[in-house]
Write a structure and sequence with these properties.
The protein is of the alpha/beta class. The protein has two domains: 5-89, no CATH class; 93-283, Restriction Endonuclease (3-Layer(aba) Sandwich), CATH 3.40.91. 49% of the residues lie in helices and 11% in strands. The protein has nine helices and six strands. It has helices spanning 12-25, 40-50, 66-89, 93-107, 127-139, 196-219, 232-238, 240-251, 263-283, and strands at residues 154-157, 160-164, 171-173, 181-187, 224-230, 257-260. The protein has a four-stranded mixed β-sheet, sandwiched between helices. It has a two-stranded antiparallel sheet with strand order 1-2. A hairpin with a 7-residue loop joins strand 3 and strand 4 (181-187). Helix 4 packs parallel to helix 5. The longest helix is centred in the N-terminal third of the chain and has 24 residues, at 66-89. The relative contact order is 0.14. The model has no long low-confidence stretch (mean pLDDT 94).
Length: 285
């Protein structure tokens, strides 16, 4: 899932409106499966109740300004993306196992295929992580990859640390020092509720994205940042509000792309080949 260019260069006040409306109007209605698309009347009512002005969103005769219309368009786009694209790509454990087993037979990987952290009958390969690792290995043209960094991501200048991220990422290409790309994997196939651990995973990716934004804006160094998620029950049945936040994060520029469930099989090989080109060019400088 890529960001829609209409919404990618908005200032932070635009996203302040998005978050405020999400808080006040909501992301879904209780008992309904549809993503809520806030209407102009609902926004006005919510802002009035909060004692906030929506003057930049409404013009003469109560018609939306260009900014107000863009906001309404964004909410419609976000809901459409989630219903038409994200929902259908999410897999449950059985589906993920089938894709994992098929790819493993075809690729005969040598990369790490870690197990999940479950116990008993739920203990199994970490399917999404395994898919990501296998696909990167198969498309990296022999270049190295750190599939499980055990240290903080560091970007250097003149051999000295320039920035070091606050937390460890789930993977880095080609290495955790001076990476071309880093990524987070959030798979929750056996989770029965949307708990704080899952919510924390979203905010961890946001923190990484904000640090990488600062690096890009102040030092001119761009490290690509990806988020990969799966588990239909966790994300779709329980966590639609957090899916909305992930789409917001994508359009705010804190992640370059979000890969959802089965999408990794078709999209990740294309992405990895762009990493290879970037790394080859860097080595030839």
């Amino acid at each position: 899932m890529l960001a829609d260019a209409r919404f990618t260069r908005q200032d932070k006040s635009f996203w302040a409106h998005v978050r405020t409306i999400g808080q006040a109007v909501g992301y879904t209605r209780r008992g309904e499966k549809q993503i809520l698309i806030p209407t102009q009347d609902e926004i006005v009512t919510a802002y009035t109740a909060l004692g906030l002005s929506c003057g930049s969103l409404l013009g003469e005769a109560g018609r939306p300004t260009a900014r107000g219309q863009l906001l309404l368009d964004y909410f419609e786009h976000r809901a459409q993306q989630l219903h038409d694209y994200v929902g259908p790509n999410l897999m449950d454990a059985g589906e993920a196992k089938g894709v994992f087993d098929d790819l493993s037979r075809r690729l005969c990987p040598k990369c790490p295929l870690p197990m999940n952290k479950q116990k008993g009958e739920k203990k199994a390969p970490a399917y999404l992580t395994g898919l990501v690792n296998m696909l990167i290995e198969a498309n990296a043209d022999g270049l190295p990859c750190d599939h499980d960094p055990r240290e903080l991501t560091t970007v250097r200048r003149g051999g000295e640390p320039l920035r070091t991220l606050a937390r460890r990422v789930d993977g880095a290409f080609p290495a955790v020092v001076d990476p071309i790309a880093v990524w987070e994997i959030k798979e929750y196939y056996y989770t029965t509720t949307f708990g704080s651990r899952v919510a924390d995973g979203v905010y961890e990716s946001l923190l990484d994205g904000m640090e990488l934004e600062e690096l890009r804006e102040h030092e001119g160094i761009n490290v690509l940042h990806y988020l990969m998620i799966d588990a239909r029950y966790t994300w779709w049945d329980c966590g639609k509000s957090y899916l909305c936040r992930i789409v917001d994060m994508l359009h705010m520029g804190y992640v370059d792309e979000v890969l959802v469930g089965r999408e990794v099989v078709t999209r990740l090989p294309v992405i990895v080949r762009t990493w290879v080109d970037l790394e080859r060019a860097r080595r030839n400088q």
